Amino acid sequence: MQETGEAIRRLFLDADLPEDVATAIRDAYRALSQRSGKKEVALAVRSSATAEDLADASFAGQQETFLNVVGERALLDACRRCYASLFTDRAIAYREAKGFDHLDVALSIGIQLMVRSDLAGAGVMFSIDTETGFPDVAVISAAWGLGETVVQGSVDPDEYVVFKPLALDGRCHPIIEKRLGEKARKLVYASGGSARTTVVETVPSERSRFVLDDEEILELTRWAIIIEEHYGQPMDMEWAKDGETGDLFIVQARPETVQSLRDMTTLRTYRLDHSATPILTGAAVGEAIASGEVCLIRDPRDIASFRDGAVLVAEMTDPDWVPVMKRAAGIITDHGGATSHAAIVSRELGVPAIVGTGTATQLLHEGQAVTLSCAEGDRGAVYDGVIPFQSEELNIGDLPHVRTDLMVNVASPSAAFRWWRLPSSGVGLARMEFIISNLIKVHPMALFHPEQVRDAAARRDIDALTKGFPDGKAYFIETLARGIARIAAAHHPKPVIVRLSDFKTNEYAHLIGGAAFEPSEENPMLGFRGASRYYDERYRDGFGLECRALKRAREHMGFKNIIAMVPFCRTPLEADRVLAEMSRHGFGRHDEGLQVYMMCEIPSNVILAEDFAARFDGFSIGSNDLTQLLLGVDRDSALLAPLFDERNEAVTRAIADVIQRAHACGIKVGICGQAPSDHPDFAAFLVEQGIDSISLNPDSFVSTLLHVADAEHAGSEGR
Fold first, then answer.
1. Can 672 be counted among the known catalytic residues?
2. Cβ neighbour number for residue 438 with a 10 Å cutoff
3. Which of 345, 416, 520, 609 might form a disulfide with 487, Cβ 3.0–4.6 angstroms?
């Protein structure tokens, strides 16, 4: 293949363009230069082939693009090279894989004025989530300089995610994710010599700031919406910013070719058999899990040594690597983003990949057994050794309708989009403490009062995490708001119930800087947790940050579907104090339509149901804690595990009682514990009692829905 391709390319390069074509190109170039007010304007010479940018096969980067082309001779040469690129090794291999006839392919060349993005930045944008197919977001990658570094995956770009349905509302700023990329190098115009462009190192100030500001991110998103509507399908676009004028441009648009073609009635899920600690993380490409031995290739000239079924590990891949990419079990790279050409091609080929790990080629060694998982959200993980995993295909196209609202429990913002196709009624439990521990990582009080953190290592960690933010408080508010908003976006406009933080003191102490603020308790499960913290001077400032983050997600970003929920509220007086504290931060009940729910998980919540119902808009039964406190059984005790049963009569009578009394007070009652997922008879009991909603772990949603449908059917027959 290499010999044949090289021979064909040489025929193109040695030939002259037909004179009438060459004359037309020269004339058009002179006219364009004159119109631009320059003697010889700089051009981008871009190819587009008939086997490229199809609705079912984009093969990004199949043909060549030439940048900063100046002068008639250089322009004609670039055109010949564009035509020759029809027969690169990667193009031949791709057509073979797709079953295209090599001689049925034609190529056109688009010649554009260069956007001076070498003085600013450029990147790629999708009008759909590239990993899950969630249709309501735009995903944007950005790096300094010309956009080829992002496209080729040779740089770790900034990543922005925007919720499209709110982007057209000028009152909302629905940027639900901003991830700062390293952007260690950039492609710029070359000066002197025959090269038209050159790669240079970026300066520290460029690496530490975002390429685009929020208004530019929103402007690109609005354009993505227009382009998607025009073509009537999800799109893959390239954009550039002119450093001379500050103007933004869309320079290319083509169909998205993976998620938009998937069967929306089936959902394939993957999960590891047991948990492990990853040795590397990066951007996940795909949603699958794969295992195999590492085949480490540092130089493209060594591609021929790749072993079928191995895990390809490289600094980066580009379309030239396609012949081996399709033979790999998985791919791991040092550099690149989720919108690079290599990532796009990996998705098309169905090969899971983790890109932008930073150190894969240094940490992993030839022949090492590894498992890579793209099934845990938008951040992929690499594990040492072979970890068994399960794969299951769920058919969601013909599920029965149920009267009971079935919702999902969500912990991780990164995994929020995975389950958008489930016919859920929203989120019954979004755990704020998971976002704090996994994204923020720092104790809220350590961010509010950094002067009280004495540990030098903790202070260094805090400085590193908060870099680029005005202070630690801004870091907490913005990071938490975006994490919550990402979950809210996946289910908008359906309700998303966000539980305020419910760490125990021992869990808070393990956060960075936490040791300085947490007491030591003999029994943290029954100690300083939940509502009791929010108005206490030892955590009051930290709770204020939580309120400000939720307020930002609802009012600044626009996610009015967020409902706040107070956990472990022991008395009505404590409820009053918490609600007053929320109001102090401009986040009071019914402010801007805010609803506030309460976890019903303490016996006092059941006994005093009417008193609590007068203060809250809804209850969510926490069956785990309620069972623990009613039966006096430590839910974490292996010794007492046989006694811990949510179906015990004491528990079921309490639940039936609180549902009836709450309904009499005119408020809704749901449940967000594990029991309905584990026990079909318990789900049937809840339906019989008239519960308004059941919130489930996503992987048990379909099976529980079928149990609920059976229970509702049996109940209607009984009547």
1. yes
2. 15
3. 416
